[in-house]
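I hope you will forgive my troubling you with a question about protein structure. I am sending you one protein, given as its amino acid sequence and as whole-number tokens for its backbone shapes. Thank you for your consideration; the sequence and its tokens are set out here:
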Amino acid sequence: MSERIERLKQVSQCGDVDTLYVLIQEDAYLLDHIDRVPFFDTPLHIAACNGHIPFVMEMARLKPSFARKPNLEGFSPIHLALQYKQTEMVSRLLQVNGDLVRIKGREGITPLHYAIAVDDQLDLLAEFLSVCPNSIEDVTTRNETVLHITLKCDKLEAFKFLVEWIRQKRSKNSIFWERKILNWKNEKGNTVLHIAISKNQPEAVRLLLKSGVDINAKNLEGHTAGDILAEQIEVENNNEIRVMLLHAGALSANSSLPNYNYSHYLHSIVSSLEESLIRCSREWRMISEDKRNALLVVTTLLIAVTYDGVLNPPGGIWQEDSSKHGIRKSHAMKPNLSFNKNDTLPNKIAGTPIGLRLLPFWLFLASNSVYVFIRNNSSSHSI
């Protein structure tokens, strides 16, 4: 058996599919024997390192479980393909099974995490997230997200790409990712903002502050981002980060709650409105084409009815001018807008709604106008 396995390893290094089947003919359970071993350098591992794509595709078809099996070092075939910079091999493996992006190797490191550590190819990150968007949620045994890893490895461009991807991604999980992952704490309680400040990355700090991170989150030592910055003395770019945190309202751990001024209040309103518009836009793009067409038809009908309510208000409009005593008045007379039914001023002016002086009419007009405003604004943001 050991002799056959050694021959199989040699065949895998050469990528010889024909000889592989010769060995299978000699022992039909040869691959099953390997599959029963929990940690093993399978033929798929070996061929992936050497870039033998046809052999890897054949082996993945015969034994799909090999693609998820860790070797003695705790790495799957796709981890090894990344390590040996076999980019095309990685893409072909993902064609077989996109969920391989989420397979965890040693210390819980996924291929998405590993791609940051061993390389800095944004195209590869984009491919991973396109194939399996939910892989952005995976964390290592140190409770680190891919964002923590990018900053630890000083991969600023990759970090900016990932944050912008989270902010612009139009899916049902985007709001969750923006609120949770950007504020996720590692095993020491540090968020990516803590890491960005400790690594002295002003660009990363600026991007995170724009993304609505919790600037006053505390780590397990009770330190906020402001505390970490205060511990850094005479560090280059320190003042730039200090100014950004100050404007964002950052506090030290023992500070009282901030007294929000008008600028903070306006900023919070703008952030809330922006988030609402993004959420509506995402939801609009997630519905099917048939539902979208149906909603457009219903919306058109509602808008038509709403505008018709303005042109033809309840009770109609006066067709000609008249006063209380039946005397015709000029069209230039100002209508009485009072709600008091006992008023003696003339109100029968041509083109004026009959119910103009009644409170229910004004409630109708206000609600009708508000609906028109909301529909016009929501339509402009959705299309």
